[in-house]
Amino acid sequence: TTHGNEVTNAPGFVDETNRNYHLLSTSPAKDTGIVIPGITDSYVGSAPDIGAYEYGGTDWTAGHNFANSPNPIYSKPSTPHMNLAVNGGFESGNLSSWTKTDAGNAVVVNDDHWGKPENTGMSRSQAYGVKLSGWVDGVAQTITGLQPNTNYVAAGWLRSPLGATAVLGVKNYGGTNVTAASSNSTWKFVKIPFKTGSTNTSATIYFKKTISLLGEVYVDDAGLILD
């Protein structure tokens, strides 16, 4: 079985014990990967294979070719399915690329998650998260460079220790404002599928604490990806 560019059962290697990770002709990983320009776009068959080796293709060689050194042109990557939200995990330690909204109380909190129970703390992973407090409080980010008439998914993790309502929303993309909410006291993953309008190339994602209760809500690991 394959899901999310992963093989969830026996991958069908030639000889896994002896580290031969080439694929058998019957491997479920054949022709089930995704095209990534410059990486998997020279595939053999109907689609790229999942894994390091393309069945029937030319093997890649690790290391540096000193006899024929490459002359790369460096540029900012734009890989399909990469997270388009900037500073989505807030690991910069600040709100760079985000804008405070509503009460303007939003702050980045340093609460190292390593070694803590999974669903606790003010950050869901690594060290930093965002705390929203007051009656209505939030942060937002406008993401540019999207494709018109294209499906995307916005997502993030929310935690409300005292039961206040935390909201993830998407707006200004060429459609109606869409939201997903949680009042969980533990970290909950929420996501919103949406489709850009026929001429829209940007969208605004936002997180908000509503007026349902006083107390704080926490936000972490925000993302926007191609669906």
UniProtKB/TrEMBL annotation:
Pfam families membership: CBM_4_9 (PF02018)
Entry's Gene Ontology molecular function annotations: hydrolase activity, acting on glycosyl bonds
Record-linked Gene3D superfamilies: Galactose-binding domain-like, Single-stranded right-handed beta-helix, Pectin lyase-like
InterPro entries attached to this UniProt entry: CenC_carb-bd, Galactose-bd-like_sf, Pectin_lyas_fold
CBM-cenC domain span: 83-209
Keyword annotations of the record: Hydrolase
Top-level taxonomic group: Bacteria
Protein name (Swiss-Prot/TrEMBL): Carbohydrate-binding cenc domain protein
The species this protein was found in: Bacillus cereus
